[in-house]
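User: Sorry, folds how?
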Amino acid sequence: RKTSRLKVSHAFHSPLMDPMLEEFAQAIQDLSFNEPRIPVVSNLTGRVAESYTPEYWVRHVREAVRFADGVHTLHELGVTTFVEIGPGGVLTALAQGCLDDTVAVPALRGDRPERQAVVAALAELYVRGETPDWQSLIPGAHRVTLPTYAFQRERYWLEGDADPAGVGASAAAADSGFWDSVEREDAESLAATLGVSADASLHALLPRLSAWRRQRRERSVVDGWRYRVTWQPLGALPQPCPAGTWLLVVAEGSEWTAAVRTALTDHGATTVTLVAGPDTDRRTLARELADIGPVTGVLSLLAEDETASAGHPGLSYGLAATLCLTQALGDAGVDAPLWCATRGAVATGRADRLDRPLQSQVWGFGRAAALEHPRRWGGLVDLPDVLDARAAARLTAVLGQRTEDQVAIRASGVHGRRLVRATRATDPAREWSPRGTVLITGGTGALG
């Protein structure tokens, strides 16, 4: 278990304070102690403080801190929201570990400016149902009715891929008269367009031709909805090394985790390793994360453990532990970007093998986590089986940038995941012949 040395001048609340107690009592003997205007729960007794005396403060220096008892007392008094007034979020994590379903928010954080931290804390309290005095924060502010302007609709799709639904639009406009006649099954108009007589053979052909036209139009619309995933070579990435302290979270130590740690340290990063084994729960992990202190980034190798999770037999431990880590980072107030590493979880092309499909579960989870926690999400990176010098350099380059968040590192280079329009099939008679197991979704809903 990881421990941290406390940065204090004396060993308070321990027998090492005994030599100063008598002198301390004499020093405060003549002070006047007023009754608190706001009820105070004492860390000495864990109950509401009644009165302050010199003897009380002497005991406070020497005896244990009953923090958990105090939190439970506040809960019994109806307190459901805790705000930590201090330089960090250590007590916030401890309070969350004492009670279930409680709201605990630190006013300040060590890794961000004070104004930003205080405003973020007020926002967190507001979305949790509290009602801050916004006039004190923003004098003269008042509520407005939204929206105050018309929504500006702007296209953000990356240019470059032709729109299949729009291909041949001009030709379709030129042929619109012809196909209108077909769909209406207007033999006379069609005969005039073609310059032939409207005989019986044309009347027999029109229904089939009209049905074919409707089918092709419907297929064209559906083809415009189809997309596929592809992997694009990214070329040379910038080389900002992942400086600072990086937290490496592993299920257990191995040669692979040691190779990743060496890759980071060889490129200038300081690493701290946290082992999150099967016995680690969310509360314990949050406390350990809070004890570590500020970090530049978090790299999870939990996906490597493909054994079944004890609490969720249908999931791999790597996936369940990754979910637990994501939640615990939020509980501990760690905003550093979280990167999740896998091996053989994606295939960048036909020659690339997808050897570890269980680790692909982490990719599905990661894309959802990126949408829910964009500010503290780093990305997903799939690594090769052998982390040689080139792969190690590419890994540190990926961790040092914030442009690409779904990356695969291979011997041929670094590849980024892209969503592109799927090419429409040109052979209308081509039938799909599935092999193996086929999963069909949406068959019983609106899409079926």
